[in-house]
Amino acid sequence: MTTPHTYITTTIPYVNARPHIGFALELVQADVLARFRRQRGDDVRFQSGTDDNSLKNVLAAQAAGADVQEFVDRNAEAFLALGPALSLTVDDIIRTSRDGRHRPGVERVWRACAAAGDLYRKRYEGLYCTGCEQFYTRAELRGGCCPEHGSEPQPVAEENWFFRLSRYSGPLREAITAGQLRIEPAGRRNEVLAFIDQGLEDFSVSRPAERAGGWGIPVPGDPGQVIYVWFDALCNYVTALGYGTEGDAYRRWWAGNAGSRRIHLLGKGVLRFHAVYWPAVLLSSGQPLPSDLFVHDYLTAGGRKISKSSGPAGSDPAALAAEYGADAVRWWLLREVPRVGDTDFTVERLIARADDELANGVGNLVNRVIALIGRYRDGRVPGVCVEGPAPPGGENLAAAIRQADGLIGAALAEFDFRRATAAVWAIADEGNRFVNRARPWELARAERDGDAGAGQRLDAVLGILFDACLELGRDLQPFLPDAAERISRQCTPQGGRLAPATPVFRRLSPVKQARQGGQ
Ligand SMILES: [Zn+2]
Questions:
Q1: By the 8 A CB rule, do 434 and 501 touch?
Q2: Which residues lie near ion ligand 1 (Cβ < 5 Å)?
Q3: Which of 105, 345, 372, 490 could form a disulfide with 244 if both were Cys (CB 3.0 to 4.6 A apart)?
């Protein structure tokens, strides 16, 4: 059997400003999928990057009175810093303006589309939103303004290269309905199909070099034009694999064997680019399509829309991770953001979620179990057969442990991070309930008083509780890798005995009291 190859990408954001919490959501979701697939034995490549070749970057740099390359570099640094801050396992980062793999790959895609007869020159007049880097028709505007930015698009008249998107309505519809190109959630898939059914119009894929301020990749054979930034940016998904430089990674993760997956994560605002334009360009240039598109909705912060240029104070993901820890930020993003619908972020919610479920839930259980084994068994883990029947009252906990693996796998196959983390959380929740119900301190007293049966029951109780901690250490790995590592370490005996318990999570809010289990 060959190892399945799984390629997971985030979008590559413009670097006209520092990263905000909405992009952290996409990164963390992608990281969870990457870690989970690695845990299951896949050969995984997790890729992120920055879109440097945008006119928006040029305008933002000019507004700041800065040199474009310096400005782009500075903001790109802030994006790269999210990797360590959020404990991400990004395998590869592409920066479109500096990466030697990018330009030859984009040129190769362009030439392939040209050879297929899908590129032609045409004079064009339209309404352009620089915020979106996109032309809009009047019908698509809201009150005469861009639906994403609320600003008035500028009339632009110029001669550009066009891509024959109109040719691809049928093949795209077929790929989507046959499940060859899977779009989740289903609402987004239907949105794409409805858009295709309206009839696809050819779209412009170049700009006069002059209007782009000389920034961007020149059109092969027509240096007066630069390649449209979206055409350029979308190509990153294959150029980083070496499509233009004969890289082995391209064969491994893109043009690979059946059963391999090519998963793009993206926000709803760029759905059309990923579900229509990009697949059409791939079909035109003779390349396989992505297998999955997972589309997330938006985060607001304190009730306000987060825009790229103005993240409200207090929602900078690197600063949040520095203050509250990567675990707390990741847990909030995974536990609180539903598969469908926008979500409001506040620091209070992040703290409440972390304290309730991590400090008072998962951390409390691990701490209690290690302490109980220390107190009553001198740190030696009772050797109980975990395959046997659960001790009385422990049936729910046993079920939570047994089912977690399957539930997590099923939930992540549907990109449902809330359901996946709920399956992990159930172990901690049932574990704490079981401690309260089984009252191990009373069993220990009875054992001391000469009741041998109580001693056996105590072994069974501590055995299943320890099993719950082991399972938490394993199951949390994709979601909270740092905490999972701390739990697994505490569950590893040294010289046959567990070390004294240390808190897994620090409590973020000073006011709340931990639930105490009567010990
Ligand atoms: Zn716009």
A1: no
A2: 129, 131-132, 146, 148-149
A3: 105
Q: What angle do CA 261, 101, 295 make, to 5 degrees?
A: 35
- For the cut 60, the answer to whether the pLDDT of residue 264 exceeds it is yes
Distance 143 CA to ligand 1 centre (A): 13
CA 177 to ligand 1 centroid distance, Å: 29
Alpha carbon distance, N-terminus to C-terminus of the chain = 52
Burial of 195 (0-12, 13-18, 19+ CB in 10 A): middle
State if pTM tops 0.70. Answer: yes
Q: Is the pLDDT of residue 218 over 70?
A: yes
CA distance 213 to 211: 5
> CA-CA distance, 38 to 509, in Å (whole number)?
34
Question: Which residue in 280, 256, 467, 513 sits closest to 373, CA to CA?
Answer: 467
Span 384-397, pLDDT tens digits: 655 667 888 999 99
The alpha carbon of 135 and the centre of ligand 1 are apart by a number of angstroms equal to 9
Find out whether 82 and 317 touch, Cβ atoms under 8 Å.
Answer: yes
Task: Please tell me the distance from the alpha carbon of residue 207 to that of residue 228, in angstroms, as a whole number.
Answer: 6
- CA 210–ligand 1 middle distance (angstroms): 21
Interval between CA 268 and ligand 1 midpoint (Å): 13
Distance, CA 130 to ligand 1 centroid (Å)? 6
Q: How many CA atoms lie within 13 A of 398 on its CB side?
A: 16
pLDDT tens sequence across 301-348: 877 777 655 555 668 899 999 999 999 999 999 999 999 999 999 999
Sequence-distant (≥ 6) Cβ neighbours of residue 247 within 8 angstroms: 101, 241
d(CA 156, CA 168): 26
CA of 145 to the centre of ligand 1 (A): 8
Expressed in angstroms and rounded, the spacing between residue 236 Cα and the centre of ligand 1 is 22
